[in-house]
Amino acid sequence: MFSLWLTCCLPLGTLLLAFWRSAAGNQLSPEQSFIWGPGLRADVVLPARYFYIQAVDTEGKRFTVSPGENAFQVKITAPEEQFTRVGVQILDRKDGSFIVRYRMYASYKSLKIEVQTKDRHVAKSPYILKGPVYHENCDCPQEDGNAWLEEMSCPQAILQIQRDLVHFSTVDPDKIAKEIPQRFGQRQSLCHYTIKDNKVYIKTHGEHVGFRIFMDAILLSLTRKVKMPDVEFFVNLGDWPLEKKKSSQDIHPIFSWCGSNDSKDIVMPTYDLTDSVLETMGRVSLDMMSVQANTGPPWEEKNSTAIWRGRDSRKERLELVKMSRKYPEIIDAAFTNFFFFKHDESLYGPIVKHISFFDFFKYKYQINIDGTVAAYRLPYLLAGNSIVLKQDSIYYEHFYNELQPWKHYIPFKNDLSDLLEKLQWAKDHDEEAKNIAKAGQEFARNNLMGDHIFCYYFKLFQEYSKLQVSDPKVRDGMEKVEQPDDDLFPCSCHRKKVKEEL
Ligand SMILES: *[C@@H]1O[C@H](CO)[C@@H](O)[C@H](O)[C@H]1NC(C)=O
Ligand SMILES: *[C@@H]1O[C@H](CO)[C@@H](O)[C@H](O)[C@H]1NC(C)=O
């Protein structure tokens, strides 16, 4: 269970003695500052809703540094209710903008969001969200998938989805239901899902199927929000992509968290990113919002030794640690865990203590190097304001193909042979490096937030479902995946009520 934070307990009336001033010395202007984002709209249901505040001064200039982390106060209430069960956090991005996020533990008829600075309303505050305003656990799907896509402001087309599905001119659920378990079911851990009438059914294959919880969770979350198309598909719970046939003949559609240049698996956002979206302000502390408020010192004050920590899951990681021991002023790389290779302290040094992810951003240069497959920390690294140096790799997550080398990150060779040279380039071109860091951060902010992840999943299943040439079926041995029923504050869904009355 997560704890409930009630708005009554947050320090809202913080007494402010200082005048917030912009870099130019001007005062923060409540009228000129602006507020925007999906969290101001009732129909965008997210586990943690969010919106942005940009501080602007009385001259109309945007703040580019923080006006102070307590510059704004936010109060969220349900006017009709005595208590509003909502947790609110204001995250200072230190660039003049803030993320306000809130997690609702109950649904409300309407919601009032007040944003103030020194007792004056900011921008168009108060914002009234005419409801119903549903919380994450409310089972109240929008019947019209395309209307939902519009409400969520999802992109028209997602290139990676098109790239992945181009290998499949049609999908025959009857055929894959038989053939995929025969081909992979013995040695691999797979989940066979059918979504029918917006209910989720599953049959697992293989021994290690614990990771199904992430897939179950996102599918249930989606079906609470939107009516999913009837669809039947297989999810690979293992690390490595599976469909390695060279020709496109007789290949099978397999959904995986990681894609590779030498396979034809259909990629989805990783379980790690998915889980962090679902559990934002809940079980997880590292997510795409929290990371934005913890990006360490400003660029100029960051330590210019490159940093890396991780486990020994790939031999290039051993190489990197060896390099670090040879050039400790240039690279600080060390293992926090030994598991895959023989632990040789004389070569790879002692195991070091874990450092908090946010502490990575004390360093200017972040090295991203594959683990077993792609290193799933890349979304968070990009969201910081350090520059990412990324190893060339056959492995990719759902968004890598949209990233551009030299624009969003600095590439280095798979065998690390040019890593020192690339680090030197970054040091010699500090201004350019800073801009690449900024572009990478911008990419993460605009493409990897919770709403983008929901869009990706829905679009993917929608596009895939159109390829089906027979009806998805609830197969023998499938069990229904039930919605969680431990919700403290059940909602009443207006869409369901209308139906019952008819
Ligand atoms: C920068 O980091 C390195 C490696 O972690 C450390 O040895 C060095 O003292 C740090 N430099 C400064 C100026 O703090
Ligand atoms: C994998 O494919 C991408 C995109 O085509 C390419 O840029 C990259 O160099 C390839 N990596 C390897 C190691 O083959």
From TrEMBL:
Signal sequence interval, chain numbering: 1-25
Catalytic activity annotation: L-seryl-[EGF-like domain protein] + UDP-alpha-D-xylose = 3-O-(beta-D-xylosyl)-L-seryl-[EGF-like domain protein] + UDP + H(+); L-seryl-[EGF-like domain protein] + UDP-alpha-D-glucose = 3-O-(beta-D-glucosyl)-L-seryl-[EGF-like domain protein] + UDP + H(+)
SUPFAM superfamilies: E set domains
Involved pathway(s): Protein modification
Endoplasmic reticulum keyword on record: yes
Keywords: Endoplasmic reticulum, Glycoprotein, Glycosyltransferase, Signal, Transferase
Pfam families per record: Filamin, Glyco_transf_90
Domain of life: Eukaryota
Family annotation (InterPro entries): CAP10, Filamin/ABP280_repeat-like, Filamin/ABP280_rpt, Ig-like_fold, Ig_E-set, O-Glucosyltr/Glycosyltrsf_90
UniProt cross-references to PANTHER family, sorted A to Z: KDEL LYS-ASP-GLU-LEU CONTAINING - RELATED, PROTEIN O-GLUCOSYLTRANSFERASE 2
Protein name, UniProt field: Glycosyl transferase CAP10 domain-containing protein
